[in-house]
Fold:
Amino acid sequence: MTNIKLLGRDAINKIAAGEVIERPASVVKELVENSIDAGATKILVEVAEGGKGLIRVTDDGSGMDREDALLAFERHATSKIREADDLERISTLGFRGEALSSIASVAETVELVTKLRSGGIDAVGTMVRVEGGRVVDVRDVGAPAGTSIEVRGLFKNVPARRKYLKSGRAELAKIVEVVTSYAVIHHQVSFELFSGEKTIFKSVRSESWNDPLLRIFGREVARNLVPIEGEGRNVSVAGAAGRENVTRSSPDWIMTYVNGRFVRSRSLTRAVSEAYRTLIPTGRHPIAVVSLRIDPSQVDVNVHPAKMEVRFLREDEVVAMVTDSIRLSLSQAGVVASAAPVAKPLQPTVLGTPVEGTEAEEMGGGYSPIPGGSVSSEGSDLQRTLPLASGRSRFALELAAEPLPGGLRVLGQALQLYIVAEGPEGLVLVDQHAAAERIRYEILSKKYASDTISQELIEPVTLELSPKEVVLLEEWGSTLAEMGFDVQPFGKNAYTVRSVPAIGWRLDSPGAVHDVLMDLFALGKVGTEATAKEEILKLLACRGSIKAGHEMGWKEMHDLLRALSSCASPRTCPHGRPTAVTLSPAELEKIFGRR
Ligand SMILES: Nc1ncnc2c1ncn2[C@@H]1O[C@H](COP(=O)(O)OP(=O)(O)O)[C@@H](O)[C@H]1O
Ligand SMILES: [Mg+2]
Structure:
């Protein structure tokens, strides 16, 4: 008796499709790639319900004759390579002949209408209709030259996958990312993305990527991009790199391409980040477009089902070339690393007395959001190492004499991360970030509960959002309003922000507001409304709190410990990690082998 059986065609296709087609944006990616491969000059992407209901991609490319239109749905049917050796010299975006058959197997219906562009005026179009992976209808139809593929009911027949899809707007955001990414690199093609009666993104055919970049990033960022250019063995790089003053809180805006293909490449992202080391603060990321042209034999694009990853034969060379090119362009544009240590924006220097603190203090009134920017007088008494009795300033001695709750006495700060203190129970180490987060979190929760979380900005701030961010903003609209944001549309992709949550530091620059919004969007919608708000409060608390690596003055350490002790749950940070550990004399003795 045998247990092993070959799977049926339908099962095989669905399994393969699972790898290629993860979500609606994967369908859009595959269809757009096909249109680009077909030499289109115009690509229209229409979606409904974030692609879950409908995806239609229409191009003016080569089109297909009747025979090809039918073959296109066969698995491993491709016009782009002929034999295994061709994998060494792939110049098209597609090559596996898997996309259409995969899409067809996980969609309710797929309808293809196509007409050969080279067919002349006598050519007729062909319509192929596929239901549940099977061709159910083929006939001649009148059609313009080019191809239109319509996908309905994606994953209707794969409930396990459908369950994992996000809300329509969240899926739409991913689609926007795919379309805008391709619009940048294939700027010779005009793109339009249409959803729910609205044009979400539109670009025109142009000679350079300046037009799509302007439409994606807005004027402010576009003005701050410098061109990059470089050449190596069998490889060249072109692109645009943001100056040090336009950064983001996530590396999402490092857009990398290899031979016209949008890829997520860790090595390329690293190459870009490396160019900015010492130029921008750690934790910040540049905006950059990096387009690599490389001899196809030097790169393997066949390593990932969705063709999103690549492997370079000489990775180190490529990485170094990219880093050097960006550095050179930046320095030619007058961007040079400053001698002063790089400031980390968006972190308060001092917590003040957060619990009973006045509104002005909590909004960072006297404080600079930039450590090392303007340091408060107490903050200047920084302590790098544990102070010895003789080395203590009078001021520090006075503070140390002041009793802290729980009988704690601060000894100093260690590793720019822990407050070292002594208490009745032994040696106490307090994680400064965890403690600060706990304190902020409780303040924010109280403010939220009493409806006072919103804080009006002295001057409204205007933001330019990318098309993807616009979609996310709509998705988050009501939650943001409830969390204290007042964000109103102000023409095209611009928004006016009048109030923000009172999170304890200045949120009065477009960059700062932008960052907080991006962080929230990056969270993705979580669970129920209630848990979503919890998560947001935690995030805001984290954002507003001193980080590891920040040197604390004596007063700051004392204020922090005092505020922590008056928290409702002082023992853990909002994420559940401990804020402090105590080493008892007995434990210390054991460590030192005294007992
Ligand atoms: N928009 C299009 N215009 C012209 N031909 C297309 C288009 N989409 C698909 N095709 C044809 O269908 C074939 C199969 O497409 P696909 O399943 O995506 O595989 P691949 O792109 O890897 O070849 C392609 O090789 C191409 O010949
Ligand atoms: Mg393809």
Summary: The pocket of adenosine-5'-diphosphate (ligand 1) is lined by residues 30, 34-35, 38, 59, 61-64, 72, 77-80, 94-100, 147 (CB under 6 Å). The chain has four domains: 9-202, 224-332, 359-437+548-591, 454-501+506-543. Residues 224-332 form a domain with the Ribosomal Protein S5; domain 2 fold (CATH 3.30.230.10).
